[in-house]
């Protein structure tokens, strides 16, 4: 089940609003989500020109929300797993100047493993 944050974000975007409306009380955001243990609720809703969604409206975004959260996890895993840029530059430079392609081949293998371990949804 998608988080309330994700469903609210999708609801806002589907109605021509920005997800930047969502934030914390300290940010004085137009939409504030309250978390109490395992239960989340919309604590503040001050979005100009858009009514606060009811439970049925939010639940209609559950499937799309699940997909978005899965894709966010994949993107984060990829971003955190890719070799660092310094390794790329060093390996590519050595390959291009004909010094050695061993590092480049190792880099490509590492890069491709990240892609296969974290396929895009």
Helix content: 40-55%
- Give the CA-CA distance, first to last residue: 17 Å
Following the backbone from N to C, one meets helices and strands in this order, namely HEEEHHHH
Q: pLDDT average, as an integer? A: 91
Helix run count:
5
What is the subunit organization of this protein? single chain
**What is the spatial order of strands in the main beta sheet?**
1-2-3
Structure classification: alpha+beta
| Share of β-strand residues | 5-15%
The overall strand count is: 3
What is the total domain count? 2
Q: Main sheet, how many strands, which sense, barrel?
A: 3 strands, mixed
- Computed CA radius of gyration, to the nearest angstrom: 21 Å
The stretches of 5 or more residues where confidence is low (pLDDT under 50) are none
Descriptive key words:
121 residues, 12% strand, alpha+beta
Description:
The chain has helices spanning 4-14, 55-59, 62-81, 85-96, 102-117; strands at 22-23, 31-36, 39-45. The chain is an alpha+beta fold and 121 residues long. It folds into two domains: 1-76, no CATH class; 82-121. The longest helix is centred in the middle third of the chain and has 20 residues, at 62-81.
């Amino acid at each position: 089940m998608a988080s309330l944050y994700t469903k609210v974000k999708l609801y806002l975007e589907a109605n021509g609003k920005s997800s930047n409306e969502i934030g914390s009380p300290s940010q004085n955001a137009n939409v504030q989500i309250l978390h109490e243990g395992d239960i989340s609720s919309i604590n503040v809703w001050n979005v100009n020109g858009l009514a606060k969604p009811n439970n049925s409206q939010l639940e209609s975004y559950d499937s799309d929300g699940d997909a978005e959260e899965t894709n966010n996890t994949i993107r984060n895993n990829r971003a955190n797993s890719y070799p660092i840029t310094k390794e790329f530059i060093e390996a590519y430079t050595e390959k291009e100047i004909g010094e050695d392609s061993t590092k480049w081949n190792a880099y490509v293998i590492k890069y491709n493993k990240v892609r296969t371990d974290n396929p895009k949804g």
